[in-house]
Design goal:
The chain is about 40% helix and about 25% strand. The chain is an alpha/beta fold and about 80 residues long.
Length: about 80
């Protein structure tokens, strides 16, 4: 596929859901969007969100990944803007 896509996922204390969500997104991107980009913006989480994101990125065979940390928590809108810019 010639096109590429970047996906930004803002996350704040999402340890309970993030692993499954990232696996689903990465499976799709690995299969359909070679050279795509997945950006997770941790917005000051105080749970295992960062650890889970890092572990999930190990399955990003054909996807570029980035993990951005915001400290302190600045809200979803700021996290999305941080990921886009």
């Amino acid at each position: 596929m010639a096109s590429s896509i970047s996906i930004v996922i803002p996350a704040y204390n999402e340890a309970a859901r993030l692993g499954k969500s990232l696996r689903t997104v990465l499976d799709y991107l690995n299969a359909e969007w070679e050279g795509s980009e997945l950006i997770v913006v941790d917005d000051g989480s105080n749970d295992e969100t960062v650890k889970i994101a890092e572990q999930s990125f190990a399955h990003a065979n054909r996807v570029k990944t980035r993990l951005i940390h915001n400290q302190p928590n600045r809200g979803k809108g700021h996290a999305v803007r941080t990921g886009i810019l």
